[in-house]
Design goal:
With 258 residues, the chain is of the alpha/beta class. It is 33% helix and 28% strand. It has helices spanning 28-38, 54-64, 73-77, 90-102, 117-129, 144-155, 182-185, 189-205; strands at residues 2-3, 19-24, 44-50, 68-70, 83-86, 106-109, 134-136, 163-171, 208-216, 227-234, 239-245, 247-257.
């Protein structure tokens, strides 16, 4: 079975009342993908946006009809919204998730949720303590082809999974984006793209018990890797492989299940 299609975010609008959103981070993905999609959902409403750059926050708020904007995160959390989408630099996720949970906001956080596993475990614990939902924005899981493939696997139609391989390559030369500053991102292609592909390996293959991988700067020399790959062994048998890069001439996203 081969999945070969760009990922799309699907949001279930069958909710009992209108959800009020706050968005922390005003980067390109927020402007060109997330907020345009959010505005298509009748039962969702953008209330407030946050950015360290107040002019950027004002621009995004005006473009998408937010009632409020701020460059102060504590002030931002005081506005009346139900759920916050955290999409800024990775280094800020930990503090923003903790503060959002304590403010009783439900949370959708971009990946990686934190800079290390200790941070993420604390996030989970504090969200549980404050009875808020904490989710990571693994959008590939909601692609129609992925949903259908999972259904076929669970029905037994595919049989025993022997191998899952995933590729996600894009052309993304170094620039001023936080992703290319290791102190802000924690890493490059592995954290940015590889997290999605590892999620797909685990979705289709199950828990991973062994892994061997490589990081490299094959084309672009910067603070962070432009290439990552790994071979994994699944707990219930079978193997997985993923390959991600910032150095492809053409964007390419493919998942193969055998």
């Amino acid at each position: 079975m081969i999945l070969n299609s760009p990922s799309k975010l699907i949001i279930n609008a069958a909710i009992p009342r209108r959800l009020k959103w706050g968005v922390a981070g005003c980067g390109n993905f927020v402007e060109t993908s997330f907020l345009p999609a959010l505005n298509l959902i009748q039962r969702s409403k953008l209330i407030s946006v946050f950015s360290h750059d107040i002019k950027r926050a004002e621009y995004i708020a005006g473009k998408f009809g937010a009632q409020n904007y701020s460059n102060n995160f504590d002030e931002f959390l005081n506005y009346d919204f139900d759920i916050v989408y955290i999409a800024g630099a990775n280094v800020n996720h930990y503090e923003q998730v903790i503060k959002s949970a304590k403010a009783k906001k439900h949370i959708v956080c971009e990946k990686p949720a934190g800079m290390n596993s200790l941070q993420i475990q604390e996030m989970i614990d504090i969200c549980k303590e404050n009875n808020v939902i904490f989710s990571v924005n693994f959008t590939h899981r909601f692609h129609p082809l992925v949903l259908k493939s999972k259904e076929l696997i669970e029905s037994g139609m595919i049989g025993k999974i022997v191998s899952v391989s995933a590729t996600f390559n894009i052309d993304y030369p170094p620039n001023d984006n936080f992703r290319f500053k290791k102190e802000l991102s924690g890493g490059g292609a592995l954290r940015d793209l590889g997290s999605h592909m590892i999620d797909m390996l685990r979705l289709f293959g199950g828990d991973i018990v062994d892994i061997k991988g490589y990081l490299d700067n094959i084309v672009y020399k910067s603070d962070v890797e432009d290439f990552a790959s790994a071979v994994v062994k699944f707990e219930k048998g079978g193997y997985g492989y993923f390959n991600v890069s910032y150095n492809s001439n053409k964007s390419f996203n493919r998942i193969e299940i055998l």
